[in-house]
Amino acid sequence: MGTQILNQFKEYLEKQDMLNKLTESQMLNDFGYSEIHTITAIGDLKEPNVTLIAKELNMTRGAISKITKKLVGKKLIETYMIPDNKQKVFFKLTEEGEVLYMEHDKRHKEWEERDLNFFSQFSKNQIELISKFMTSYNLYLDSQIKIIEKSEEDTND
Fold this sequence. Notes:
Layout: H1 2-23, H2 26-29, H3 33-44, H4 50-57, H5 61-73, E1 77-82, E2 85-93, H6 95-119, H7 124-156
Antiparallel strand pairs: 1-2
Helix pairs in contact: 3-5, 3-6, 4-5
């Protein structure tokens, strides 16, 4: 039974990927998932810095540092400092970054509307059960990520 569920997750992820490719704007295709979601976080957050973005996206600060350097290089974001805090570097979207932010937001809303319509066929109890399962599974995956990250940190020390 477990293998069947894993295969269903695999099929789900492949179909979501296909739908994304079919419905995404060509301009979004040139960027990875993490890059687009970093742009989204910068657009959504007040005074976004590496630590705040990492927390928002549940990623390491090191990963966000690499992504933001790449996005600065592509002129999609730029850095700034607040006059009374010269230690922290913050990010803001450039005009080009704002275009990507708006396009991703548009696509996200279309996805949400499409899939919420599908979920409306299920009862409140069924949705609660699915939600409980997904919460539990995501917590399990979080624990697996932490184990691997800890192992990599130990190896690098």
